[in-house]
Amino acid sequence: MSLQSNYISHDKYLEINVTGDYVFIDAQKMVPEIFMKCRSLELTNALIDFTKMKGERMATEKALYGLTLENEYKTHLQLGGNELKVAYVGSTVTSYEPAVNIVKASKLNFNLFMNREDAFEWLGIRGT
User: Fold this and answer.
1) pTM for the full model?
2) Which CATH number fits domain 4-123: 3.40.50.300, 3.10.310.10, 3.30.750.24, 3.30.160.20?
3) Nearest-CA neighbor of 106 among 65, 59, 77, 74?
4) Residue pLDDT tens, the chain, 128 long
5) How many beta carbons lie within 10 A of that of residue 100, not counting itself?
6) Domain boundaries of the chain, sorted by first residue
């Protein structure tokens, strides 16, 4: 099964639950979709839960994903989207350093967490 994403719109955030087998191109295609949904719903927070995603992610792919985030976020803002806080939740946070370094250098308001509770606290919203 390829990568699947389930979008749930809440009052204060967009929840994205990612499942299936990791395929880089699928993950990359998901980024503009997430930003487009946040724009259309006029949301300022997103929670992306990839704890159920399977498969290996190579360091190069993680760096390219970080670059995709940076570029697509700039496009999101140019198209009139709100500034976003994006929390990623996964079981292997420390292995995402290549993407995290790019995101931090770009000063994007994105962060990685090991559990949803910490992510909700960082987003400033109550978990559901």
Assistant:
1) 0.89
2) 3.30.750.24
3) 74
4) 689 999 999 999 999 999 999 899 999 999 999 999 999 999 999 999 999 998 877 878 888 888 899 999 999 999 999 999 999 998 765 455 666 677 777 778 988 898 999 999 999 997 55
5) 18
6) 4-123
